[in-house]
Amino acid sequence: MKIVHCLPIFILTLLAFSSSAQNPTDTLLTAQAFNKALHLLSEKQIIDVRTPEEFKSGHLHGALNINFYDEDFSEQLQKLDKDKPVLVYCRSGKRSGKAAEQLQKLGFKTIFDLKGGITAWKEAELPLFVEPEIK
Questions:
Q1: pLDDT in tens, the chain (135 residues)
Q2: Considering 38, 47, 49, 90, which one is annotated as catalytic?
Q3: Are 30 and 19 in contact (CB under 8 A)?
Q4: Distance from CA of residue 62 to its chain's centroid?
Q5: Known catalytic residue: 6?
């Protein structure tokens, strides 16, 4: 049972290494590999580190918005489950890369970072979730 649970992470790690990743706990994934991770991992935490305004314009389904620029950003990250994989993204990959470094320092075990951010996601023509406006 434990081996079956680890298999998706193993497969994603292999995918990441083929995408020129350097550290298996902080893995940079292409939009296609990141999308596969979203579907393969049953237990995961999807973190969008963009501003609330950017988040409202369209985000990945199930994502939690934790603004990278918030003063308590690190404290908000610490509230996440360190044992569950974290999939993190931003607009272009810069903020999520820094967030991935922070997550790693905080002791998170498995971190996947979207290479090129939501910009790469859109270029790959992958779906975004836009919340309906409340009138």
A1: 444 455 555 555 545 444 444 444 569 999 999 999 999 999 999 999 999 999 999 999 999 999 999 999 999 999 999 999 999 999 999 999 999 999 999 999 999 999 999 999 999 999 999 877 676
A2: 90
A3: yes
A4: 11
A5: no
Fold of 2-123: Oxidized Rhodanese; domain 1 (3.40.250)
CB 35 within 8 A of CB 116: no
Residues forming beta bridges with residue 27, ordered by sequence position: 112
Residue extents of the structural domains in the chain: 2-123
> 89 - beta bridge partners?
48
Supply φ then ψ for residue 119, to 5 degrees.
-65, -45
3-state secondary structure of 90: coil
Distance (Å, rounded) from C-alpha 54 to C-alpha 60?
Answer: 12
